[in-house]
TrEMBL record:
Substrate binds at residues 76, 148. This is ATP adenylyltransferase. It comes from the Bacteria. It comes from Microcella putealis. SUPFAM superfamilies: HIT-like.
Length: 188
């Protein structure tokens, strides 16, 4: 949106409307993510960490796709794309350098398997894989290490998220979880 354009009413605000030097960036507010921020206390520990809670639930309720010894895979409750997975250690550690060698190795192995399963089940064309370390780096849940695996398809980006505040996710989470869990190879 240009500085002289009217507010679209879709949660964006013009930088020129605020004190300071305008930076020409739009701001897209995502208040639904405050549930993660509000639950974190000042020490960085989480009283209701969803990544600590999920493994204690049955797999369907916790959206758990696969379980390892040191880490597990679950669907993202707020996916960027259908099949958006997270790989988490069971242990509540905040950053990659705090994870044990065993946790790191298993997270890597689970990530590789997740890529194969997603490619086989969804026919995706590629992946975004990454970790945001700390709240300042964009981690929605900064207190518990997690790696994102986002399947991507040619032409999967569109105007819905920007213009209509809508993300097109064509399949239900439970349906995707069931399909991925069924396709996950048995433990060796």
């Amino acid at each position: 949106m240009r500085d002289d354009a009217p507010d679209s009413g879709f949660g964006t605000e013009r930088a020129a409307d605020f004190a300071g030097v305008p930076d020409a960036f739009e701001r897209l507010w995502t208040p639904h993510r405050m549930v993660y921020i509000d639950d974190e206390d000042r020490s960085g520990e989480r009283s209701g960490c969803p990544f600590c809670r999920a493994p204690g639930l049955d797999d369907a309720t916790g959206l758990v796709v696969a379980r390892g010894v040191h880490a597990y895979v679950l669907l993202n409750l707020y996916p960027y794309n259908s099949g958006h997975l997270l790989v988490c250690p069971y242990r509540h550690v905040a950053t990659y350098d705090e994870a044990s060698d065993e946790e790191v190795a298993e997270m890597a192995s689970l990530t590789q398997t997740a890529m194969r399963v997603l490619r086989d089940t969804s026919r995706c064309d590629g992946f975004n894989i990454g970790m945001n370390q700390g709240a300042v780096a964009g981690a929605g849940i900064a207190g518990h290490l997690h790696q994102h695996i986002v399947p991507r398809w040619a032409q999967d980006a569109n105007f819905f998220p920007i213009v209509a505040r809508t993300k097109a996710v064509p399949r239900l989470l439970g349906e995707v979880r069931d399909e991925l869990a069924a396709a996950w190879p048995a433990a060796l």
